[in-house]
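User: Reviewer 2 asked us to show a designed sequence for the structure in our supplementary figure. I'm pasting the structure tokens here. Could you produce the per-position amino acids so we can include them in the response letter?
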């Protein structure tokens, strides 16, 4: 069964007649956009700077600018950033030390409020704001697109061609409708970019419609440049300086200190369980703990499960398993626990809800799984990478001596 999406000439001409060839308004009035960030204890754990930057979309897609920078004192949980802008645009936020780099769409004469937390990771594209209609509308579509791409990958993996074509056709209609009905130039720009990525084979059709719709927004010059209605402006000296400064800031962000995982060193960890409780290895209060790093998609990891379960049955009063998953999807993690019947393990997750590795997991620098560490009740590493019968042999020698 085939699904074909087309745009009639009548519809195109109707769109053309609805657009006027307005001239660019050289007297655009700038209005303040205010961004309020609510910081958790991690983000404000030390003095640092925060920067609001982006492009002057009303000038050119080449005109980079740092809108604002504010110093954050240690323990300061609220910070306000500002930008004077004549039209809507997408800004980004960068912390000099702790905190994510992220996009934050803003409009003139508006205020957006957003929680910033350690669990946001090193970066994210969009996040739902406490307040901020423009940001949240883009966030909602971004989440919709993630759902579409996930469904598409699932169908591709099962080679369901008819369902793939149907899903793609529906998404194409949805995305083209968003482009045609956009009330802001930045939405047209966003729709054009996403459509071009999702449907590269239909780029001429997408670009033709985008060029027409873009004429409704003559003051959005970055949009005009993107769709080919206007030649890309050269990079100004101010834009170059802003770009160099942002590169310097990123380069100077402190690197994560890796933990020393040598035998004899302490390894006291604290990860979150499925209910959001932070559980430390020291809280288990047992002679020996196997800190096991695994993931639902790792077959060798799950092949170790029978041996580890046997070790728990053999030494229930002396041995515990602290299983840290590297899964980026909570559902897959929980499903694997149920499939393998490992509820007797202490299960923790090493990633944030957005799928990024937590700061502690990055400090551990786990590159290969399965990986495990055996620690004693003083939290010292006494053995590493105990797989199969080797785990039982080492426990026997320790507990039966």
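Assistant: Here is a per-position design you can include in the supplement:
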């Amino acid at each position: 069964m085939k699904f074909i999406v087309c745009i009639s000439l009548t519809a195109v001409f109707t769109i053309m007649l609805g657009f006027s060839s307005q001239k660019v308004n050289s007297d655009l009035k700038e209005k303040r956009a205010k961004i309020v960030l609510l910081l958790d204890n991690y983000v404000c754990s030390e003095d640092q700077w925060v920067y609001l930057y982006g492009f002057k979309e009303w000038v050119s897609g080449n005109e980079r600018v740092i809108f604002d920078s504010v110093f954050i004192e240690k323990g300061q949980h609220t910070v306000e950033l500002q930008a004077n802008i004549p039209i809507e645009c997408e800004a980004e936020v960068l912390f000099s030390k702790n905190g994510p780099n992220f996009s934050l769409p803003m409009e003139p004469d508006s205020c957006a409020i957003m929680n910033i937390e350690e669990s946001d990771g090193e970066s994210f594209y969009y996040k739902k704001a406490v307040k901020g209609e423009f940001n949240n509308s883009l966030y909602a579509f971004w989440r919709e697109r993630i759902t579409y791409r996930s469904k598409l990958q699932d169908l591709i993996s099962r080679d369901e061609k008819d369902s793939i074509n149907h899903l793609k056709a529906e998404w194409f209609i949805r995305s083209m409708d968003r482009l045609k009905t956009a009330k802001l130039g930045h939405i047209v720009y966003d729709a054009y970019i996403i459509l071009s990525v999702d449907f590269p084979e239909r780029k001429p059709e997408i670009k033709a419609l985008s060029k027409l719709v873009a004429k409704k927004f003559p003051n959005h010059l970055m949009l005009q440049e993107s769709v080919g209605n206007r030649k890309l402006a050269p990079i100004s000296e101010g834009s170059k300086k802003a770009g160099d400064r942002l590169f310097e800031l990123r380069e100077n962000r402190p690197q994560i200190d890796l933990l020393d995982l040598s035998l004899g060193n302490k390894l006291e960890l604290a990860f979150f369980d499925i209910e959001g409780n932070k559980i430390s290895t020291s809280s288990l209060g047992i002679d020996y703990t196997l800190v096991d790093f695994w993931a639902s998609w790792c077959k060798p990891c799950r092949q170790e499960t029978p041996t580890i379960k046997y070790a728990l049955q053999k030494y229930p009063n002396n041995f515990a398993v602290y299983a840290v998953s590297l899964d980026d999807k909570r559902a897959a993690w929980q499903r694997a626990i149920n499939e393998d019947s490992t509820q007797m393990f202490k299960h923790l997750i090493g990633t944030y809800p957005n799928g990024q590795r937590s700061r502690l997991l990055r400090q551990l620098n786990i590159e290969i799984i399965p990986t495990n560490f055996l620690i004693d009740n003083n939290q010292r590493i006494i053995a590493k990478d105990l797989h199969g019968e080797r785990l039982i042999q080492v426990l026997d020698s320790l507990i039966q001596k």
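For the response letter, you might also mention the following. The longest strand covers residues 31-39. The domain at 270-399 is CATH 3.40.30.10 (Glutaredoxin).
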